[in-house]
Amino acid sequence: MRHRIVGELMTSAVVHVRPDTGFKEIARLLAEHDIASVPVLDREERPLGLVSEADLLLNEAAQEDPAGLLLTPQLSPGEHTRSRATTAEGLMTSPAVCARPEWTVVEAARLMQREHLKRLPVVDEAGRLVGIVSRSDLLRVFLRQDRAIHEEIMHELLDRTLGLAPGRVDVRVNEGRVTLTGTVEHRALVAVVGRLCRSVDGVVDVTSRLDYRTDDTAALHPVR
């Protein structure tokens, strides 16, 4: 089976800034290109960090309330320093957490989840920026048509990968939800089929109603 990779989903033309780019220029770029953040690159085109709308808003959050109705904001030392910055070097969140073009959607999604990020700069083997991938980019795999998912499961997974005889397993796909019915030879294969179907790009859920002819798992758990 072939999974879509970051290099196929990323945006290659990336709006970026340099460490000395000023606050207002960054704000203008975000507004002009309707984006939420920009990577900060060094002279070798390697990402140093990212400046986001949230980073810029620290400047406003740190201000005293003109009406005197709000309490003084409680910022961490790092946030307080960044709230006074006027260039990308001081504003950015660093170091940059990056992905590679050959990563699968799963790899990129797990990194985003673990680091609580909405987007990742994508770098080549030398660490140079080649693109940027966002959550919405990764979600594009779920735009696959049911027919394409059905074809991949039937031909790539059941036939070529597992070598199951035609007609042994019936596959229904509706809005990315896969339902499996039929009978396979061994009980252990039931879990394998379900797990592989869940790994197909665009699959939202798998309901397995598969039966089996032989319980080959009994020998793994002998009765004492």
Structure description:
The chain is of the alpha+beta class. Helix content is 35%, strand content 21%. The protein has nine helices and seven strands. α3 crosses α4. The mean pLDDT is 90.
Arithmetic mean pLDDT? 90
What's the story with the biggest beta sheet?
A: 3 strands, mixed
Helix content: 25-40%
Shape: elongated
Taking strands numbered 1, 2, ... along the chain, how are they ordered across the largest sheet?
A: 5-6-7
Coarse structural class:
alpha+beta
Oligomerization = single chain
How many β-strand stretches? Answer: 7
Order of helices and strands: HHEEHHHHEEHHEEHE
Q: Hey, roughly how much beta strand do the residues contain?
A: 15-25%
**Number of helices in the DSSP assignment:** 9
What distance separates the N and C termini? 41 Å
Enumerate the spans where pLDDT stays under 50 for 5 or more consecutive residues. Answer: none
